[in-house]
Amino acid sequence: MNELFEPCQSLFQLTIDNNEFMSKAQRLNNYKGFIELVRSTLLQECFEVEMISNSLSSSMDRRLKMLKDVVNAHPRLGETRGQLSRNSKVEQNNLQNSQDPPEIQRKLLHLNHEYEEAYPGLRFVVFVNDRTRLEILQVMESRITSGNTWFQEMRTAIQELCNIARDRYYKNCCRL
Predict the structure, then answer these.
(1) Which CATH superfamily is domain 9-172 in?
(2) Cα 91 from Cα 87, distance rounded (Å)
(3) pLDDT digit string (tens) for 97-143?
(4) d(CA 124, CA 68)
(5) How far is it, in rounded angstroms, from Cα 56 to Cα 140?
(6) Residues 141 and 174 sit within 8 Å (Cβ to Cβ)
(7) pLDDT tens digits, 159-174
(8) What is the pLDDT of residue 92?
(9) Domain ranges of the chain
(10) What is the DSSP letter of 85?
């Protein structure tokens, strides 16, 4: 799991520690199916939390926190400090090693902050997929100004982190 997704206790609780999830996972015969099961499980959890989001229940708060934890397990784009997974170190180094001028790095940090103001409690997650920093900045700006609700953006982040996991699988399939 940690080879595909960022290490996160909440992700384990929503998946590996979940009997319903595991009964479905045991019928799978490949990692692609596993990643898609994680995707559908997280999206379903997001939908259910959104449906009860107007209630003031401790269950809703706990479930929402778990979803935030899964998304926020990913480092901010351009972040080099803190605990990074082996995969994130490689991915972040690729961003750091670009030949972009310092103003691009400053803009990246600024947009990370703007995003987190627009969507409190969420971190911007995107499957970079060999795009340049300039292209990623454009994606960030479009998502910040998209008018998405908080839950729409949560679903987008879930899709992106599962796309990252799928890419990690393809890049590392010999070791999994």
Answers:
(1) Oxo-4-hydroxy-4-carboxy-5-ureidoimidazoline decarboxylase (1.10.3330.10)
(2) 6
(3) 566 788 888 898 899 999 999 999 999 999 988 888 888 999 999 99
(4) 11
(5) 32
(6) no
(7) 999 999 999 998 887 5
(8) 60
(9) 9-172
(10) -
CB 49 within 8 A of CB 63: yes
Which residue, 131, 134, 13, is CA-closest to 73?
13
Amino acid at 29: N
| 5 HSE (CA, 13 A, CB side) | 28
Instruction: Determine what percent of the chain falls in helix, strand and coil, rounding each to the nearest 5.
Output: 65, 0, 35
Return d(Cα 125, Cα 154) in angstroms, integer: 10
Residue 152 to residue 166: CA distance in whole angstroms: 21
Tokens read off for 31: 């990692």
By three-state DSSP, how is residue 57 classified?
coil
User: Among candidates 161, 160, 154, which has minimal Cα distance to 53?
Assistant: 154
Tokens 């971190």 correspond to: 123
Residue in the block written with tokens 């960022």:
6
